[in-house]
Design goal:
about 50% helix; single chain; about 90 residues
Length: about 90
């Protein structure tokens, strides 16, 4: 039996990828923020509406951070508030 020569594997950088069902913002914290924003208003919110708002908010925030990350000056690795403000200004015109 002859041995076959194995080619070395090319290592790719590991990136953490979130599953679609997981969320970056915990629902309980998001829910308390929404309640605080509604304040003393008598409006209620269904569970489905809260989940939809949670998903939309999270998607917006993730995309905003991705855009702001593209604006980071190469020698720096820190995301600054100016990057977020500029990304928001570019997105909203």
């Amino acid at each position: 039996m002859g041995r076959t020569k194995q080619t070395p594997r090319v290592r790719t950088p590991h990136r953490r990828v979130c599953a679609p069902s997981s969320s970056s913002i915990p629902l309980s914290i998001f829910q308390s923020i929404v309640r605080e924003m509604f304040g003393t208003s008598k409006l209620g919110m269904s569970k489905k509406a809260l989940m939809t708002l949670h998903e939309a908010t999270e998607s917006y925030m993730i995309e905003l951070f991705k855009d702001a990350n593209l604006l980071v000056i190469p020698p720096l690795i820190t995301l600054r508030i100016q990057n977020l403000q500029l990304a928001n200004r570019i997105r909203n015109g």
